[in-house]
Amino acid sequence: MPHQNLNSVLARIDSDLDASLERLFALLRIKSISADPAFADDCKTAAKHLANDLASLGFATEVRPTAGHPAVVGKSNGQAGKPHVLFYGHYDVQPVDPLNLWHRPPFEPVVTDHADGRKIIVARGAEDDKGQLMTFVEACRAWKNVTGSLPINVTVLIEGEEEVGSKNFGPFLQQYKADLSADFALVCDTGMWDQNTPAITTALRGLVYEEVRIKASNRDLHSGIYGGGAQNPIRVLTRILGGLHDENGRITIPGFYDGVKDLPPDVLAQWKALNLSADSFLKPIGLSIPAGEKDRLLIEQVSSRPTCDINGIVGGYTGEGSKTVIPSLASAKVSFRLVEGQDPVKVRAGFRKYVSDRLPGDCGAEFLDHSLAPAIALPWDMKPLAAAKQALTEEWGKEALLIGSGASIPIVADFKKTLGLETVLIGFGLEDDNIHSPNEKYDLKSFHKGIRSWARILAAFAEAKL
Amino acid sequence: MPHQNLNSVLARIDSDLDASLERLFALLRIKSISADPAFADDCKTAAKHLANDLASLGFATEVRPTAGHPAVVGKSNGQAGKPHVLFYGHYDVQPVDPLNLWHRPPFEPVVTDHADGRKIIVARGAEDDKGQLMTFVEACRAWKNVTGSLPINVTVLIEGEEEVGSKNFGPFLQQYKADLSADFALVCDTGMWDQNTPAITTALRGLVYEEVRIKASNRDLHSGIYGGGAQNPIRVLTRILGGLHDENGRITIPGFYDGVKDLPPDVLAQWKALNLSADSFLKPIGLSIPAGEKDRLLIEQVSSRPTCDINGIVGGYTGEGSKTVIPSLASAKVSFRLVEGQDPVKVRAGFRKYVSDRLPGDCGAEFLDHSLAPAIALPWDMKPLAAAKQALTEEWGKEALLIGSGASIPIVADFKKTLGLETVLIGFGLEDDNIHSPNEKYDLKSFHKGIRSWARILAAFAEAKL
After folding, report:
1. Is some CB atom of chain A closer than 8 A to the CB atom of B237?
2. Is residue A246 part of a domain?
3. pTM, full prediction
4. Containing domain of residue A316, as a range?
5. FRET pair for A146, CA 20 to 30 Å: which of A159, A335, B77, B445?
């Protein structure tokens, strides 16, 4: 039985959409790039901005410091006998470089037309995660405005370090453990299956992210004098990294696949039926040949198989023109997406040994650890899942899918470990949102129907026997 | 018989050293970085500065435009029956990055103490090539000041694009062919054997310098969504470049060694006797293992064998922290030092084919050509060589050596081809001068005795039957 006020709330969302967009834009204008210390004040500004907004809705709100950027906690209680959810989002965004590839300034949001006619919101963070988290906040606003309260008890928790590995989030949860108790968690940082098909994500890949710096000579050298005799750290680095994949796309680090299981035959059959083709998945991004293990389906390559990517590399002269230098240093950022069964500590150790074993005797390697998170598999039979799935299906007119995601959301493991909470992952992102890239966007439809979806989900949680 | 005025000229050089240094400093303060268009005006300023200085010595001087940075031509004639030399230098310098590794601003020259007590001149260009070319200009100044003229006829030609491959120099020589006629050329852009042993360079390696850009997807991607399925151009680039050398340090491009000859047994024996060890050559730069072909002497690796170096590489996220991006582009600068017998056009084609053959079907490669110069072997029996060798030996009190150099000076080929001139290569650089690196320096002794050496050489050319 639908909640008695739901239709009024949905009508309110529709009529309030322009104002909702204005509020999202205000948040998008804040340059809360967590990776760059130059934007630390902007991160504080974003936290305060969100705290003020939640307080205006009647949430009991605090900005709480961490060893890094602050987190925001807001509480709306008082619904005795109703479930209590812990909603998670993050206000920090990825760096914007290369800036010259943006069609407009990344922190000046606009609604514009996609080439195919869709209305899109363009800005850094438009999707990840400001747009997504505001779908939930706006749903709460509509409920509060129409009925004066929320249908369930809600704690909103918004952090500022998701894009840099959430290093201070575990200790934060530990510190406020009692204060953050709830029945289960909600995370809005995932995607839909496609533009018309909503999804709940029930499996996430883990992430090991390493930076490796190769050191050769004690200073930059002239290749005319030393070329041929002195070791070149870029040669060493390319030789080592160039060997990380074999000719079949398989990762060559000894022990890397330890613990990785094949999909159960029935799941594999379901995935085969989804028929994710190179044409549909790779063609829109200008590619045509799946780059992963040749004996796996493309959907396995991007969802259930572990991966290795070089996310950045730099060394020597990279300016215009030429310079005949042999640099003393070269470095790369290398990340691994992990699946259930893999131990991130072991993967990191395996990578470091792989590099060290291949170094010439007069070169050195230094490693920096940027992330160390295991993969997560959530139970497919959680009660909130069924309620949320039904609500999503009603909003979108198409059955919501339960899917695995190649992305990593390390905080889901922290919720389980520290707070004992399972997480329901719902989001409205699309593959072409350009998150972490120039010209990030969020479909206006995702934003609008995302707000409506959350309004329905809150009602469904209130009605369900959870 | 020594020239009658030589001793007075040498005395004048000694007493005028501080003023010579001041004049060098004025030139070093000009930021004439040819690779970076932002410094185009500084290049013009350097050309004008040198033209004014030469004019003040009575040279008939002109700044002549090219399609790039201008060149300076100055003529001092009137010594009928005496040889006519074309002296070549370049006023342009290498970029200064990484700036943070300089101990002081690169364009604020000083004389300071080296750790081992030597007096050194520190600045970008202190050696390459401003310090070196000013040894010749100051020698001319001393002759002019003492005797009112030079002992021989001299055309000074100073270009501004040596550090970017001298692309406009061939056409320039062609244009002014008649005007630049001379008996032979002098180039001051090479080094000594060691701090106490002067040298004349009679062989130079060629240079093929390529930039390669690998293109994969049509935009940057999130590795969480696409990782494992989408090709990563850094993976492609490292795989290709990492295979350029085999385990024995040999370059793997098919046909690369075509035409390369082994040293004649007597030369090999002489080189063996020089006993260039890893300890003496590599230890000062923090290395210990020769990186070239394992079956070759270190002196062969850096002098007579062709080489391949990756001079720069960049792709993806290279800022602080981490970003889970799969970039759409990755690029590298790759150079090859060539020896006699190798065809640079064939080497370039071989490299491009090597890369293209190894590209995944959905990736592309773009190539930029930064240099294409063959190796040079000069005749060891040139008459000016003997005169210059004798003059150098007298100045330094140690027999001057005839040596091969790993560096490339492409203009030597242009002098031969366009003007029909052989070149005598004399310079006073040392291996630890950090040219093309932070903290470039020139020994004060190199500068002072370099000026004296040229004063003697000019006299020797006037006396010799050339």
Report:
1. yes
2. yes
3. 0.71
4. 206-260+306-372
5. A159
